[in-house]
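[Meeting: bench + compute handoff]

Bench side (C.D.) handed over the final construct sequence. Compute side (W.E.) agreed to return the predicted structure before the next meeting so the bench team could plan truncations. Sequence as handed over:
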Amino acid sequence: MFRNIRCKESQNVLGDRGVFLPCVTKWKYGGEMKDKLSFVGIQTMVTKDIQKNFRTALDITDEALRLHKKVDMLVLPEYFYWAPDLVDTPLIGPYPEEIIHEFSIRAKLYNTYIIAGTVANRREDGNIYNTALLFDRNGDVVGKYDKVHLFDALNAMGGERESDQITRGSDLFSYDADFGKIGISICYDVRFPEVARTLALRGVKYLFTPAAFYTPRQDHWEKLLISTALHNSMYVTGLNLYGKLDEHNTFCGRSLIADPWGVPVAMASDKQGFIQAYVDPDYTDEIKDAVGTFHNRVPDVYDIK
């Protein structure tokens, strides 16, 4: 359990599970108190045991949802359920119904949106996709995003390439949630600034990024998330796996939530657990107006094709 600590509005506190918790839920604007949005992120260690992975993810999810009575979005990491090697490819089937069932129940019970990490799944055409599902507050699946940028770089997976197993998606994803427009990107997508900028130009204010980001590049992970938030005047929530899966796959954790000013408002330690932050729904527009990097754009001189 976390400690209950009173502190100033600008502070977060370190809970007993090694994650930072904000201390406030409201800010004043001209004397008026406005409710904040509550985002929760789950950080897990993946193993070769699917049911162990799933049970752990559900247990941490349940703990976070019980502790925080109001949650507007909960997000899990990429491959939280199973990180299949190439030799496991024949075993990959349709999207698991047990994931849909369990997270549908929790989304409805706790009146929250949930992004159920990502899962490798085989479609009717025989292709395998790395997919994030979005559940609304009624527990319905209201959207999905198939990872577009596949990790064929840095020889990080013992010579394997993600595209040896996964078929890339063909579209970016945004959705009009009841608290604002959200977007989803997945892991390696964060290295491509075009993704977040395209979503920002569509009006996305909150970007959620499930990931399986490798050690020793945790400095890249943190800086990419923070710079994405700052460049696009949006909240960015990145949820990563943590720990060693095998000799070729070790993940750096450090899940975080960055605000539109590029300030981390919550960050996970090097262990399983969850992070939570209250975010200001007006702050994205305030920062966007202040820094001017949208209304001062000169699209006629840009050529990034």
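W.E. noted at the follow-up: Confidence is low (pLDDT under 50) at residues 1-31. C.D. will use this when planning the next construct.
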